[in-house]
Amino acid sequence: MRVILQCCCLIIMLMVGIGIGISHAEKNMQAMQGTEGAPRAIQITPTAQGRIEIAVLGQTVETEHPASVANQEKVVAQVRQGTNLMAAMGNEVGAGIRQFTRELAAWMFRWAD
Questions:
Q1: What is the pTM of this model?
Q2: Res. 10: pLDDT tops 90
């Protein structure tokens, strides 16, 4: 059981190392290309007026008719009333998988002690 715990720890360290390595590689590639601090493909920034500004490939996108608060409340009420069968099934499957992995981890760590 000790070997399994060691393998799990090594895999976790490997995944963290891969994430850090990808981040550093991206920064170094931008430095080599001379594009450090360049805008991203999609950049979202809040404005002082409480609106959100979205820039896609450097071009600013704005909505022509922003939704009113009353309309937003109506949509939220409709979404809460209606149920989506696929979403409910996905939530149940996700909850089951989460519970299973927690029980599996608890079982593994019980054996490690």
A1: 0.32
A2: yes
